[in-house]
Amino acid sequence: FRKTDEPQVVEIQYPYREIQTGAVHFGDTLTFQLGGYEQMVFELRPAAGGELRIEGTRYTATQAADGSEAIRLYAAAGATATFRIAGADSSEIRVDGAPVPAGSRAGDALNLRFGTAAESELTYSPASLRVEHGAGGERILHVTAAAEVPADYRQARLAFLIEPEQDLRGVKGEAVDNGKPLGLSLENGGRGVWHWFWAGLAPGKHSLELTFHLPAAPGGAHISGWLLSQRGLASKRLEVALPPGQTVRLPENNLLPASSEIERKTYALLDEAIR
Q1: Is 87 exposed, middle or buried (0-12, 13-18, 19+ CB in 10 A)?
Q2: Residue 100 CB: number of other CB atoms within 10 A?
Q3: Which pLDDT value is given to residue 107?
Q4: Residue 49: what are its φ and ψ, rounded to 5°?
Q5: How far apart are CA 60 and CA 180, in angstroms?
Q6: Largest CB tally within 10 Å, which of 78, 136, 203, 234?
């Protein structure tokens, strides 16, 4: 990076889109919250004038063929989010078609409540592990866990990662959910360095029993278990009117496959070494 004394804007571009409130300067520390196995792409750019920015909450900006732009803001259902319109003066702000009184947005900072709170949250119990030593040195891992997935979750996935100390092929797994077989998918890139078993969980209660078979091999292994969820966020439509004669650059379409409307969470179920 080339050192500069100019203020910089920090915008997360992936897995969602959000501009941090305020500017940063060379030498500042940037902190980000990442979920398990999550990647993030962010951009640093000069805080130029004439650029309309939505700071402090997730958003999307899409441009229609006629040049009009639709901006939507996102937050958890029932949450109150504070965001700021920066980079341009506004003569009128509308949220979901209703004008926002100027007296309630000092400095173009707004507090918005995003509907009513969700009725329930995903719940789970930590997984338990029992290791059985089978014939010929095979290690059999017995794992039990429980979870309840609310109906409004877009996705809930149960996953276990097995990492042998040495390459190990032929690792197998099976699962039972509420007494019925649960299909497990396996990803390992065709190699024996790691083995990622996963299955989707439908809304409802789950009593889970999983069994993993590790062929005989020198060295130990590490197993970790995870719940990965996706839940839709509440949204509001934002319209910003500018004073006559003022022109600004509106937010551009995001070229990355970001999903600002989805909240992703990762829950740790298990973290054990196997000998």
Answers
A1: buried
A2: 17
A3: 61
A4: -75, 165
A5: 41
A6: 234
